[in-house]
Amino acid sequence: MRVALACGIATATIAPSSALAQRVTVSLDQAHNIGLEAFKQRNYKLSYSVAKQLLQAREDDIGALILLAASAPHVGEHKEGRIAARKAYLKSKNPTHKLNAATYAAVAAAKEKRPLLTQLWLRRAYQQAESDAQRTAIGNQYRQYSRTSPVKLSFAVSVSPSSNLNGGSESQFLTIDGAFPIGILNGAAQALSGLRAQVRGRLTYTLSEEVAHKTTLTFAGNVSRVRLSSGARALAPTVSNSDLGDTELSARITHQIAHQGRPIPDTYSFALGQTWFGGDEYYSYATASLGRSFRFGKKTRLNVSATHTHQIFAGTQSDIGVSVLRFNLARQLQNRDVLRASFSLSDSQSDSNNSVYQSYSASLGYQLGKPIGPASLSANVSYSETTYDNYRIGFIQVPGGRKDQTTHAKLDMTFNDISYMGFVPQMNISHIRTTSNISRFERKTTGVGFSFVSAF
Hints:
By secondary structure, the protein is of the alpha+beta class. It is built from 9 helices and 20 strands.
């Protein structure tokens, strides 16, 4: 089959600008070559016209669809280019064709100012990449686009077996200081093992951005559901899977400014949220935060923040106000490893003495810059201590109050060589141990979880 091109081929490719347009009849293969050469020479009008005529001759021509997808955005036909790219992506079984189609679809969607669709097509391009170099280039392109895009979407999915889904006690006996007996805990108050599945998502929209300031609106959601083990169901027959599921939805507005050396916060935020537990409303909250970032050289950064959260409970429980002062330090080492440290102080106030506490926590984390074998590794250890000065159990005032000490160790292993649309598997090994002078709050939780997180 041959196709007639009335495109001024000689003029567009090799002839001087004064040459007259002429009708030329060529084979489909020759037309493909002409269109590709025109695109390489940035003669997008000619490559667009060639692609359109090729598709008139054969509507399922993958090469012509990709040529149209590449050329159309350059002549203002953004939607047409994206649709052509989508057709090529769906029809082709060739990874290279799919990679090119997804890349051109992302370009067209970006020109249409459709940021979520752009990010989706970049992830599809990442999925079709055949080399580390291609994946690195697409990942960098995604990051660059995300920095300038007004809309960002992120989410993660995890499944983790746990020895303590409900934060229950290790022991069936309720004692104070290990000696003063109070009673016996029912099965629902003891540690229940099983499986937890969690989905976390975040959508951020940039409301305004200038050189000296930026304002964003973020919607976030967290849904967690559990499946109790047979042993847990036998221990606590009145507790169902739905009783331990929780959900949180929130909206946050954040305003950042260039402090220009002045001793003022550079980040201000306010958030509203609602939580549910066991299918019922648990509490709503409002959070106000101030923050300031400090840089020491090019590789060290300190973030200082102050936060106050007011929790309003759906039942008869008194409101709680929690204030937190937090310091986060991160330093990149010469071998691209990253060292992180944090320290926080918390104070909780309420009309209920059992909700009044003071606590501090410290953590140390280390992330390897280069993978070991197939896995990138990061580890974190933390310690916290919480004191309730006037804690009561029923009518009994606990002598000296309640004191909890918690240690937490976590190891994350990310397998970047296995991915789907830019999401890579991550194995999380976690162990949490809490000791307390009240046995009800002595607990131990061990879990090995599997998550899918974004590679970029």
